[in-house]
Amino acid sequence: MMRDNDILFFNLHRRYLNASPQFGGFLGIFTLAAFLNENGYRAQSYAGQLTEGLRLIDEACQNHNIKMIGLYCDYENVTEVIFLSSYIKETYQIPVIVGGPQSTSLKKDFYIKSQCDAVVRYEGEITVLDLANYYIESLGVIDDIKGISYFKDNDVITHEEQDLIENLDALPFINDECYLVPKQDYTELSIMTGRGCPFHCSFCHEGHHTRKVRFRSVENVIEEIKTYIETHEYIKNLHILFTDDTFTLIPERVKKLCEGLEQLQKIKPFRWFCEGHVHTLFMNPEMINYIAKAGAQRIQLGIEAGTQEVLDAYKKGSTLEEIKTVVKHCYDSGIEEVYSNIILAGAHFTRDVYIKNIVFAKELLKIAPGVMEIGVVSYWPLPETTITNHPEDYGLNILDYDFVTSSGDFPQIETNDIDRWELIEMMKSMEYELSEYMKELLIKGFVKTELINSWLSRKHTKYIGRWIYALNQLPHILNFYSMVFSGECNFIDTISQDILHIHPMRTVQLSKYLKNDSGNKSLFGYKLNDLEVDILIYSLGKLSVEELILKLREKYDDITLINTENIENVLRKLSSQYLLVYSKY
Predict the structure, then answer these.
(1) Tens digits of per-residue pLDDT, 537-554?
(2) Inter-CA distances, 238 with 295, 411, 454, Å
(3) E strands, 277-404, where?
(4) Which of 25, 383, 544, 573 reaches 20 to 30 Å from 34, CA-CA?
(5) What are the phi and psi torsion angles at 190 (to 5°)?
(6) Beta bridge partners of 313
């Protein structure tokens, strides 16, 4: 049941392509609610779909004495925020404030259409508290509030920036009271361990706006996780998301934090995710060992490009060799998932760069088969980044600064030689090539058996990875491992009994997958001779190898062909193609 609140915060997006907005790892408005609650106000937050959010706004404003509403604004939901803000102002006549990453780029037209009272720029806690004091308690004057912009006398007035919160340990933990609607997934906990970023990547909004890097103490981070575990002790399959870009900035801090996570694992096992900076991991590879040992499931690396020229233009501070070394180390250390994007139509993009991106991406997939995952995205002209401010310096033309044609799914960039339609085909083609290459690595046995078994054993996972998707496109390999993992069957080399007494079982339906082209038969590209076809026909587990040989001798005149040694060789060959597994009975 909804309670009375002084202020509510909303992060609302449209239901796009029949998919509800996802907010895994999102913290901002919930941190604001926790901060205001600690400072004497009653505040809650909601992140979700536009229509449901509007219903909640109406219910709250009509029945629960709401005094102020805050709206989160990013590059995707500007139009939604304009609608919501103007609706709230016209319907309920209460103050509306707007914040989020888009706040520093909002123009005069936004202020006029939205009718919002103030826009919060950069770090929001102190500014929002000042605004709550002003609008709700009538304390202070608007002219003295730092970190805001507002519309006055037909102009946008912008105040000096707010002071940073130096001691992040002073911020309260987000708790269940911060949620206007009870949290939907208590198995996921998002944690911010620091703010700011020292890396000024030319495409990155955070890199453009960052000032001083600040960290919470390791003790404070561990205490938040411990509190959550104790408060939700019934939760199973807990997954922790560390959301900050600078998680791997300081090696000693990573070591200490990972030691703390290891101790927490003894209280309640959990999996976790973090982001890593390639160069810092390359210079301090021991951090990868700490992360793996502490139970990390997934690490995201900022790779972005497969050519040094583009990496340099992005100011990534890393090299191609460093990337390969770090990916290999992550793989060797046992981290199960390493994720990164390759950006198309970014800095100095050409058809030659595109080909090199594919080549490099495939090299990374082979370095870490079954572990490395690569997404393909087009460049997003995020506001006020170096590339967005000066696209001509990078050989780019921005078609849509305002993202009115895209929700991250449609290019807003062209080059002088490559239009958005060719770029779309490039994106699809690269996705296809990488997917096919992953299948090839699976077929050729590059992916470790224990890794595949770990995928098949997952009953709960936060990430259904591209490798699992590729495996599902190869039914013979999927069934090959699934039949063994079920305990019903075995690989041929793991059976200790006499080969004559094991029972071969084929992994797929012949009627569904066997191709017969003018008498030439094949399964999944493997050409079958007549003997192999007959063995597969009989391989349902009903016959032992000894009984199978007797059946084959009834058909083949050449008895020397049907002997134990030769049949065993054929069985092994079919097994190597993922077409046979073996039962003891």
Answers:
(1) 999 999 999 999 999 999
(2) 12, 36, 17
(3) 296-301, 337-344, 372-378, 397-398
(4) 383
(5) -100, 135
(6) none
